[in-house]
Design a protein that fits this description.
By secondary structure, the chain is of the alpha/beta class. It folds into 2 domains: about 40-375, Metallo-dependent phosphatases (Purple Acid Phosphatase, chain A, domain 2), CATH 3.60.21; about 380-605, Alpha-Beta Complex (5'-nucleotidase,  domain 2), CATH 3.90.780.10. Helix content is about 25%, strand content about 25%. The protein contains 17 helices and 33 strands. The strands form 9 sheets. Strands 8-7-6-3-17-18 form a 6-stranded mixed β-sheet. A 6-stranded mixed β-sheet has the order 10-11-13-14-16-15. A 5-stranded mixed β-sheet has the order 25-21-29-24-30. Strand 15 and strand 16 (about 315-320) form a beta hairpin. Helix 9 crosses helix 10. The chain is globular, with a radius of gyration of 26 Å. About 50% of the residues are buried.
């Protein structure tokens, strides 16, 4: 999609860096000449002028479409067990207070990605009233972030969920650059987005400080959004691209280098060995790439107020900070610089996080988007059916519950209908699903779009893959590593049964169409017992069709076999919308029609929960 020339060249002229668009790909533009410093340096070196300067960089990450402190699935203010609040409106109040304290010209505001996916507000303007339509609306996140005066934002992997055209439109609507030094045009291998921006801060003495912000995104995009990016973009590793760009930024006169990285501090990769790159590489970048002063960390959804990593080549410490997701926290980096021998050097960097629940929502932001908010509340409140009984997912991580059965039921019926009359019509269909949200709930009575969408908060689509019985067995064994090994007779605390701290709920799958038990007294890899299909022990050579979401099919979670399995069908519609449409067509939900207890937890053959198969 062509971009306004102003998006690149105009911004470069202001900031002194950026990219110019050439042949559909971006290449580094020539930096604007620095403001002349005349003989100020000599005066300062003699002690006749300011020799120190301090400034602040504020950072958010993983906002996931949260502007208001609102939960569209419960139709009320957001709240959790720790009484966190969410949303840019509260972050805006914190930002305004710090700008007043530090001076507007001495602060920068940046983000580390995953901005335009995650709430019904962001979904509405991607699918229901899309920003890509002719004369379409401006994305609420662009409007809010523009009003708050963001200076730059790195791209997250979820920016690609709705396709590149929508991302390009969002980029066009932002008054700040979207950065991704390791998102390359597949044909030219040049940056497809601005790799960096250099901001110029003016000190009281008139001298400027050049602050470079390098954006890095996640290589897993190549797997997770393969359908959207394959053949169009490639995503090399963070360390490799940082090593290429940081020296360039220093040679261009950057006094300070900050990395905004949509990559956790450290940890295993959910795509395993499918890519030669590290998923959560921020600490590795700090350790191995010299010349970086601080890294704003994203992607992992954890809170890191301040972490110091020593660079192995220079011995200097790099400061890392990750604010909690959805606008629950704001990172504050404070930089102290000294002028000596004609250049600025960083003397100290400190970081901390601020809690957004200490701030009121900024009425300038809530007022700006009041109409958009009202439209989305009305949309998710539309009634699409009724339920005979109340159902929820609170016990979904450790029990077979009806609402997860509902997801699998709809997926199975959808795939069966798609394959009817074809080569694979006679193969039995299995289905995988996870407890995507422990707070999903459908009350007895009316079912709204809000209720149905709450079962599936991710924008995944559905695929069908060919698998064997042996592969399904491996798949279930891998999934069962989610549980903590628990000896027979040991006390059972449901809150401590899972490894959810290291294996998110969405990376634990149950598979419908089979019956089986998971013996959590056994070590991971030897837990699946009684695995049967239609009452008979599972035949390892039998062929099945697995209804699977595109995240898992592309390698998300690093489950075995499925990414390499033959794809025989795929859908472009989100599973969430398929569920909503099915409920609307069905009219009345009766768990007796779709729910059954087909799996359970055991220890040495004894059920963990006595009523599990009741």
């Amino acid at each position: 999609m062509p971009l306004d020339r102003r998006t690149f060249l105009g911004r470069s002229a202001v900031t002194g860096a950026g990219v110019a668009l050439t042949g559909g790909a971006a290449v580094p533009a020539v930096a604007a000449p620095a403001v002349p410093e005349r003989d100020a340096g000599r005066r300062d070196d003699r002690g006749h002028g300011p020799t120190r300067y301090s400034f602040t960089v504020l950072g958010t990450t993983d906002l996931h479409g949260n502007v208001f402190n609102w939960d569209y699935f419960t139709d009320g203010e957001f709240d959790d067990a720790d009484h966190n609040d969410v949303g840019l409106a509260k972050i805006a109040t914190l930002v305004s207070g710090i700008r007043e304290e530090r001076g507007r010209g001495n602060t920068l505001l940046i983000d580390a990605g995953d901005t335009i996916q995650g709430t019904q507000l962001s979904y509405y303007y991607a699918r229901v009233d899309p920003i890509t339509a002719q004369h379409g609306p401006v994305h609420p996140m662009a409007r809010a972030m523009n009003a708050m005066g963001y200076d730059a934002a790195a791209l997250g992997n979820h920016e690609f969920n709705y396709g590149i055209p929508l991302l390009r439109k969002f980029e066009e609507q932002c008054d700040f650059p979207l950065l991704a030094a390791n998102a390359l045009d597949a044909r030219t291998q040049r940056p497809a987005f601005s790799p960096y921006v250099i901001k110029r801060l003016r000190t009281p003495s008139g001298r400027e400080v050049r602050v470079a912000i390098l954006g890095l995104t996640n290589p897993g995009i190549a797997i997770w959004d393969k359908a959207n990016v394959s053949g169009r973009m490639t995503f090399p590793g963070l360390e490799e691209q940082a090593a290429a760009w940081v020296p360039k930024l220093r040679s261009m006169g950057a006094d300070v280098v900050i990395v905004s990285a949509h990559s956790g501090a450290d940890g295993t990769s959910s795509y395993g060995d499918q890519l030669p790159y590290v998923e959560n590489a921020s600490a590795l970048v700090a350790q191995r790439v010299p010349g970086i002063d601080a890294i704003l960390v994203g992607h992992a959804h954890v809170e890191i107020p301040e972490r110091l990593v020593t660079n192995e080549r220079t011995g200097r410490q790099v400061v890392l900070s990750e604010p909690l997701k959805w606008g629950q926290r704001l990172t504050r980096f404070d930089f102290d610089l000294a002028w000596s021998h004609g250049r600025w050097t960083v003397e100290r960097v400190g970081a901390r996080v601020l809690n957004s629940n200490t701030a009121a929502e900024d009425p300038a932001i809530t007022g700006l988007l009041a109409e958009e908010h009202k439209k989305v509340v009305a949309y998710v409140g539309e009634v699409v059916g009724t339920s005979k009984t109340a159902m929820d997912t609170a016990q979904g991580p450790y029990r077979d519950v009806p609402l997860i059965d509902l997801i699998n039921h709809v997926q199975t019926l959808t795939v069966e209908a798609a394959l009817a009359g074809g080569e694979y019509a006679d193969l039995p269909v299995l289905s995988q699903a996870s407890c995507f949200s422990r707070t999903a709930r459908i009350a007895a009575g009316d079912i709204t779009i809000r209720d149905a969408a709450g079962l599936y908060p991710f924008d995944n689509t559905l695929e069908a893959r060919l698998v064997t019985g042996a592969q399904v067995r491996d798949y279930l064994e891998y999934s069962a590593r989610y549980y903590v090994e628990t000896a027979p007779g040991a006390p059972v605390d449901p809150a401590k049964l899972t490894n959810a701290d290291s294996i998110p709920d969405y990376n634990y799958d149950v598979v419908s169409g089979l019956t089986y038990d998971i013996d959590i007294a056994q070590p991971a890899g030897s837990r699946i017992t009684g695995l049967a299909f239609r009452g008979e022990p599972l035949d390892d050579t039998a062929r099945f069709v697995l209804a699977v979401n595109n995240y898992r099919a592309a390698g998300g979670g690093n489950f075995p076999h499925v990414p390499d399995a033959q794809q025989i069908w795929s859908d472009s519609e989100e599973i969430r919308n398929t569920i909503i449409a099915w409920v609307r067509e069905k009219g009345v939900l009766d768990p007796a029609e779709f729910a059954s207890v087909d799996w359970g937890l055991t220890r040495a053959g004894a059920p963990v929960f006595e009523d599990a198969r009741a």
